[in-house]
Structure formats: C-alpha cells, structure tokens
Amino acid sequence: MRLTVIGTGYVGAVHAACMADIGHQVLGVDIDPARIAALTAGRTPFYEPGLAGMIKRTVDAGRLRFTTSTAEAARFATTHFVCVGTPPRPGSDAADLRHVEAAVTGLAAHLPAGADGTVLVGKSTVPVGTAQRLADRLGTAADVAWNPEFLREGRAVQDTTRPERIVAGVPTARAEARLREVYAPLTEVGTPFIVTDPTTAELVKLASNSFLATKVSFINAMAEICDATGADVLTLAEAMGADPRIGPGSLNPGLGFGGSCLPKDIRAFAARAEELGLGESVAFLRQIDEINTRQRRRTAELAERLVGGSFAGRRVAVLGASFKPGSDDVRDSPALAVAEAVRVRGAQVRVHDPEAADNARAAHPALQFAPDVAKTCDRADVVLHLTEWPQYRELDPAALARVVRTPVIVDARHTLDPKAWRAAGWHLCAPGRPRLG
C-alpha cells in the first residue's frame, strides 16, 4: 500500500519508518531540505533506539523515501498521515495548529480535481474539534480521520510496530476500511483496533495523557506526605499498584514528568476546556501541573539543605539532562530545571548525560558539562541523580566516593540501590523515603 507521511519530526519519522518496515511504500514529506537529506542518508536529528537502523534498512529496500514536494505527495498516494507538531501558541497554553493547517492546506492545493478516495489521517495531538474543522475546510476532497499516536520516547519503534491498541477515529466506512488495510499487519497478530468517531479519537490522546499525568503527580503528592510523616513512598506505591483497579503503571515517585507531550498536552487540554466553558471540569489538571513543577523546586531545596543551607562555593554534580532515559530530548526536562535552579542559587554545576549533552548545552549554555561521570563528580559536595539512565544504576559507589568531596547523593528517581551506596559510605536521600536519610 502507498502512504505519505507529512512532517518528519519525531512522530513522523518514526511512523514513516515503521510503516515501511511492515511492508508499505512510504513517502515522507517535509519542508526542511537538510532534514530530508539526512533522513535519506539514514540519519535522524534525534536519538531514538532502533530508528536510524530501521530508516536505513527501509530506504535501502526501496520502501521508504523522502521529498520536500507536497505536489509529489498528492500524486504518490491517496492515504496521507499528518504528523506535524502542535507546540503551545506564543504566550498561551493552547495548542498552536498553524503547522497542521499549513500541512493540510498545502496538500489540498495539489489534490486532483474531483479526487475520489483520498483519506487524510491526523496523528498530531490536537484540541477536540480540529478534525471536524479540517473536514469542513476540505469538503468532499478528502475524508478526515484521526489516528492518535501513543509513543513513549525511548520505546517509540516498539510502540508503533507492537502497539497496545490502535484507535481509528473515522467519519466514513471508506476511511475505516483504509485504516484497517494500513494496520492489517499489526491487527492480524492481535493488536486491538478500536473504531470510533474523529472527535472521540482526538479526546482519547488528551484524556490518556491527562490520566497518566494525574497518576504521576498523585504519587509525588503522596511522597510529600511520606516525607512529613516518615512513611516510605516506594512501599506505598507498590501496595497501591497491587490493586488491579489502580495498577502499578506510572506510580513512579520522584522528579515528575517532562518532555514535549505530557506537560504541553495537559495545559492545552485545560485551555481547550476553558474555551468550551468547561474549565471547572478539568481544573484539577492545573493542580497536577503545579504538583509536578513543585517536585523540581523541592529537589533543589533538598540539595541545598544537604550542603549546609547555601550553595555558595559548592560544587554540584548532576547525573542526567534528558527528560527521560532512552532519549536526547531536553524539552521541559525536570533534570535541567533542577540543575538551572541550583546554578541560579549560587552553585557551580556540572552535568553529564550519555546522549543529551549537546542538546542540553544548547538549551542551557550557563551550565557546565563533562564527558564522563568521574569528571562530573570531581570534588562535588552533592551528587543529584535526576535521569534514570541504566548507566547510572551500574556505577560503582565505592569508586565514585573517592572522586567527590562529600559522599552525598540525592536519588530523585528511586533507581539506585540504597544499601550498596550506604555500604560504600554515601549519605543517600530520596524524596518520599525520609528514613533513608
């Protein structure tokens, strides 16, 4: 089957490569010639495990190629996936749909007159009602369906080729049949295919992200209670997660969520609800956002207490810069927010990250970066473990103790072994586990 993927940013590049990998002929479209050249050569502008190899493999096999021509895309296929970004509007929490609208307008200008059978499939995360507005604009030129993505950075290839579910928001039987054909290689091996209308499909993504954010912020609020009462948040999360009505997923206390999806999406969802006159119905999302942001401030304050109440003249080592492991994405990174807060309070900060150092340096030029953990921690007064890369779990605490000035570490992600670190002479603190300190 022939498909186009409009937009070759993170979602588009992953979708294009994975669709080609399951057997489709795919044309990726982008207005950035440099990006198109890089993708054609098998290079990605971001780190995602397995993606670069998949792109090269499918390009070499002739199932994937890239172009800057929207006209060529309109000639190439009758099924078009729109995968462009929806960042916040300048000065607002609401989603900026200019890129989506430009992509659709650009494609529509080249659709053959009287074209029959064109299906436009949105994958971008958009406010409820976007699909209907685009459908009204296109009229009979195309069916507008919505097929939200549920990618987790660091696992995006797996989430696309072995998804937990496929949601198809379709306005017509033709659009449903088209999406069933696209995803047949996945549904034939048991992937659930949920059919609904485009509006509900738009809402599924926003509601899912909001619920995940709620769980993360809830357990972090409980961590604050644990700090005040002497309870242990990890045992609390384990016991709560054992209840099948709750489940263990996303009950991971620590520094909270970041990245380009959850924070942006819950704010945009709240903004859209307010536009609809339903702000009170999702007012809790503003509280969830505030709880999440508060974890960053609390971590910086904990580190300051551990160095005697002032960062002046203190060296702070930060392990992690990306918003999560398996990614070089530093957008709304909790780790970098803490590092910057500590620097502003007077500390000399050095940061290490196995993949995101270049992006972090560009975003935060006032921070210092080191090429390895030992140099990062050299003569540090406190070490902050802020992104749970597996490399950090494998560190030798005894060897690292010989490098730092003071063996004090904050495990803000709860992935280090407290017994091993304490046996090596470290004072280890973790939010919500006051007895460790």
Report on the structure:
The protein is an alpha/beta fold. The chain contains 19 helices and 14 strands. The protein has helices at 10-21, 33-40, 51-60, 70-76, 98-108, 130-138, 156-161, 173-182, 184-187, 198-229, 233-241, 262-275, 283-306, 334-344, 357-363, 373-377, 390-393, 397-401, 418-423; strands at residues 2-6, 25-29, 64-67, 79-82, 119-122, 143-146, 166-169, 193-196, 315-319, 348-352, 368-369, 382-385, 408-411, 427-429. The strands form three sheets. A six-stranded parallel beta sheet has the order 3-2-1-4-5-6, sandwiched between helices. α10 (198-229) crosses α12 (262-275).
Number of strands: 14
Q: Indicate the structural class.
A: alpha/beta
β-sheet strand percentage: 5-15%
Low-confidence stretches are none
Spatial strand arrangement across the major sheet:
3-2-1-4-5-6
Largest sheet: 6 strands, parallel
Write the layout of secondary structure elements.
Layout: E1 2-6, H1 10-21, E2 25-29, H2 33-40, H3 51-60, E3 64-67, H4 70-76, E4 79-82, H5 98-108, E5 119-122, H6 130-138, E6 143-146, H7 156-161, E7 166-169, H8 173-182, H9 184-187, E8 193-196, H10 198-229, H11 233-241, H12 262-275, H13 283-306, E9 315-319, H14 334-344, E10 348-352, H15 357-363, E11 368-369, H16 373-377, E12 382-385, H17 390-393, H18 397-401, E13 408-411, H19 418-423, E14 427-429
Parallel strand pairs: 1-2, 1-4, 2-3, 4-5, 5-6, 7-8, 9-10, 9-12, 10-11, 12-13, 13-14
Helix pairs in contact: 1-3, 10-12, 10-13, 12-13, 13-14
